[in-house]
Amino acid sequence: ADGRIRCASNPEAIGGDITHYPYWAQMPRTHFNVSKPLYGEFSKREVLWAMLPVNGPDGEFEGVLSASIDLAWLKRLIATRNSRDDTIVLLVDGNGRVVASSRPVSWSRIPLPTDSSNARSVRDSQGQIWDYAVAPLHVGTADLKGKATGASYNIIYAAPQPGVFGPRWWIAAS
């Protein structure tokens, strides 16, 4: 577990050293983890880095199985999958900061629920009120001292008020 890349879809990455990434040192050795958006040294793109620790038969940490998720690709995917013009699908981090969206939005951060209620409303810069529902996608992990070592992500589905048939009712499953 020396932080050297042994196998990669990009041949230029093989032999590369990832120990200088903060996530390498902070990564819990027992949990799946997803980074905050970062610039991929080998892909030359903004990515999310997903990491799964690999332990040997004796339980000792031997390395990670990882994948870089290209954020430009993810943004295109979200945009093409949301075919409705009157709705927005967002990927936000655990602080409500927009990471990817199906179309441009006027807010850079959206309030996340602090209780069991998943339905919320937000006003954009033009004064339009949007109803939205939040579904957790990945909950970040913490080290043994409780320090956050990974990012949390949520999917948000938003539609403007008033709805075509009056108030909108949401059910968000998590």
Describe the structure.
There is one protein chain. The protein has about 170 residues and is mainly beta. The protein has two helices and nine strands; from the N terminus they run αββββαβββββ. The chain has helices at about 20-25, 70-80, and strands spanning about 35, 40, 45-55, 60-70, 90-95, 100, 120-125, 130-140, 155-160. The chain has a five-stranded antiparallel β-sheet. Strands 1, 2, 3 and 4 form a four-stranded antiparallel β-sheet that branches. A hairpin with a 6-residue loop joins β2 (about 40) and β3. The protein is elongated, with a radius of gyration of 19 Å. The two termini are about 35 Å apart.
Layout of secondary structure:
Elements lengths: L21 H5 L6 E2 L3 E2 L6 E10 L5 E10 H11 L6 E6 L4 E4 L17 E5 L5 E10 L14 E8 L14
Antiparallel strand pairs: 1-3, 2-3, 3-4, 5-6, 5-9, 7-8, 8-9
Order of helices and strands: HEEEEHEEEEE
Q: Can you count the beta strands?
A: 9
Strand order of the largest sheet: 6-5-9-8-7
Q: Estimate the strand proportion.
A: 25-35%
Please state the overall shape, judged from the principal axes of the Cα atoms.
elongated
How many helices? Answer: 2
* Overall residue-averaged pLDDT value: 77
Structural class estimated from helices and strands: mainly beta
Largest β-sheet summary:
5 strands, antiparallel
Distance between the termini: 35 Å
Helix fraction, binned, reads under 10%
- Rg over alpha carbons: 19 Å
Q: What is the oligomeric state here?
A: single chain
The parts where pLDDT drops under 50 for at least 5 residues are: 168-174
